[in-house]
Every structure is written in C-alpha cells, then in structure tokens.
Amino acid sequence: MASKRAAMIFKRCMSSVPGGKPLPVRKPLPYRRVTVLGAAGGIGQPLSMLLKLNPLVSKLSLYDIAGTPGVATDLSHINTRTEVHGFAGDDQLKDALKDADLVIIPAGVPRKPGMTRDELFDINAGIVKKLVQAIAKHCPFALINMISNPVNSTVPIAAEVLKVEGTYDHTRLFGVTTLDVVRARTFYAKAKNLPIEDVDVPVVGGHAGKTILPLFSQATPQVPLSKEEVEELTRKTQDGGTEVVQAKAGKGSATLSMAYAAALFAESCLKAMNGEPNIIGCAYVGSSVTDYPFFASKVELGKHGMVKALELGPISKYEQTCLDEMKDELMGSIDKGVAYVHNTESEKIIESLK
Predict the structure, then answer these.
(1) Phi, psi (5° rounding) for residue 344?
(2) Which residue from 73, 122, 184, 213 could staple onto 201, CB 3.0 to 4.6 Å apart?
(3) String of DSSP letters for 187-208
C-alpha cells in the first residue's frame, strides 16, 4: 500500500541520521535523474523535499522561473544520496531537463476561490505547452508526470504538443490522480474505522469534480457501505480540493497532500523503471479502457512507462450512473485541451505567413 511505501521511504532516510539504525548494505541502485518543473511553488517545494528523501532519486533538478537556486541549496544540506541542482529562467530550462528519466510538472497557478475552470485553463495551458515543448526537445524519452491543473485538459495539451513535435508515446505521459486515491483511502478508512495502511480504493475517470469516481465497490478490505455512505464518501472525495481551499480561507490550495501523492506516484514510476515487477497505480492516461481518449484507471507500470491500462472490472449500479454522468464534462475538458494546441499552432502558422 502507498502508506506503507511512504513509511519505508522515511525509515530508509532516517537510517542516515546520527543515532538511526543502519540498514543492510544492498546492491547499488540505478542512476535516475528526476526534474521538477515548478519546483519553487507551493507543491514544488514539499515535493522536491520528498524526492530528496527518496533513495531511488540520484540527481534532482529543480526548475522554476525564479527562486529555485535557493530551494536547491536548502535541500542540498539534507544528508541523503540525492544530488540537487537549481535552475531558473528560460535560458536554464534546457540544462534542467538534460538526461532526465522522469519529469514532474506542478508548474502553474492553483485554483483560487471564485476562479472558474476556464480562467485556470487560460493561465496554465500556455505554461504547460511551453514546458512540454522543451521536454520534447531536450529529453524526449522521459516519463512525464503531469500535476498542473486542470489535469483533464493539460494531459491532452501535452499529448498534442508531443504529437506536433513528433515524440508522442501515450505510455510515457501520466496525469497524476494519486491524490484522489489518497483521499478516498483516508475517508473510507476513517468512516469504517479501518487500519489505513491496509486500505486501497481505486479511483477512475478524471481529476476534477464529478469526473472523479472512487470505486468503493472494489475497495479493500471490503466492508458493507449503505447507499448514503457511498454517496457521501464519493462526494467528499470529489470535493476534497474545494474543502482545502475553503479551509485555507482562499490563501492556498491542496499543496502538501498533493506533494505527498505526487511523490508516491513518482516512486512507483522509478521502481518500475528499475525493473521491480507488479507496480500498479491509478493515473489519467491515453487508453482504450473506455470510449474516452483519456481516462484515469489502474495502470501497470514497467521499465519504459505504462505496460497497460487495466480494465475497470465490475462496478456497482451507482458507479455506472456516475460514470455515465461525467461524459459531457470529461469530454469537454479533453476537447478543450486538444483544440487549444491546434488553435495556437494555426495562429503561429498564420503569423509566419504575414
């Protein structure tokens, strides 16, 4: 389970702290380079710290428009094996991406109270397009973990950009939906008084509002839930981000829990790259599991990215209804992302002909 993996990471890191119990010497880990784009932000900083604590990360490159040299220097004082470098500004983006095995993108602005999804899209779409163009040029074979919202649109944006650049491979592009899984596990365990480290709940669909569909019918361990409990747990999982924004009185969003979730998924990707078998996690990917061109489901990870997206399996009548009801919103978000890239590319061509 993810919580067990996180505890193991922390235990391994603490082994290097004076007084900590040393762990047995193991064979050297493969050299893995991870780049964080947007590393000076509210998600980027705690995410970067968690990656610095992960022994699977050999080199950590932190990039943002400003502030990253300071973040990198701060993190470099932590006594773990991970080498940290900071990069800032357009002219250093190339160096930040050089030889990256995994690129994680939390760049952009978070959703604020009163901000519409269209407003969020208008700001973050351009940021994502620019960064993905750089990935296509400087590390085209890296796995991409997309965090920048709205993920339902930014992943299609990334896919279309990579297609334009001639480097698209759907097995290497992931929308990080792990926070939805983390929330569903937490709420389910609390509601039924279960040991949280033993709980798992797959979450499918997308990564916004009613497109988030926790499958409590497939939760483990399986305990009876009333219709009312299922509906409440589903609503709570879907509205988790809004709950945090409101609790922070408009002064922040879900940064810490998102960083934790992103670190979990990054670790899964790195383990799979290193050849560890049977690595399964939920992610928003290009797949044929449903009629949607992009859909969040369980995926099996391997050395070069996604091995396959797993079938949904049996779901309840309520879950099927929710799946049907998300269609317009999810397809609308996907189409908007695809159209954004084609519209901006058309504008570029027209401008060049003037």
Answers:
(1) -70, -35
(2) 184
(3) HHHHHTT--GGG-B--EEE-SS
- Catalytic residue numbers, as ranges: 207
Locus of tokens 């590393």 = 39
Spatial separation of the C-alpha atoms in residues 275 and 301, rounded to whole Å: 10
Of residues 36 and 14, the one with the higher pLDDT is: 36
Q: Which amino acid type is present at position 61?
A: S
Region 40-65 average pLDDT? 98
Using CA atoms, how far apart are residues 352 and 349, in angstroms rounded to an integer? Answer: 5
- Residue whose pair of structure tokens reads 């269609």 in the numeric block: 327
Picking from 262, 241, 219, the residue whose alpha carbon sits closest to that of residue 103 is 262
Name, in order, each residue with C-beta under 8 angstroms of 189's C-beta and a sequence gap of 6 or more. 195, 196, 199
* Tokens matching residue 315: 């779901």
| Cα 57 to Cα 77: distance, rounded to the nearest angstrom | 16
Amino acid residing at 49: M
pLDDT in tens, 92-103: 999 999 999 999
Burial class (CB in 10 A: 0-12, 13-18, 19+), 30: exposed
* Alpha-carbon dihedral 187, 198, 149, 48, rounded to 10 degrees: 120
| Backbone φ and ψ of 173, nearest 5° | -115, 120
Beta bridge partners of 174: 145
Q: Is the dihedral of CA 100, 63, 50, 264 positive or negative?
A: negative
334 and 287 in contact (C-beta within 8 Å)?
A: no
| Predicted pLDDT of residue 354 | 45
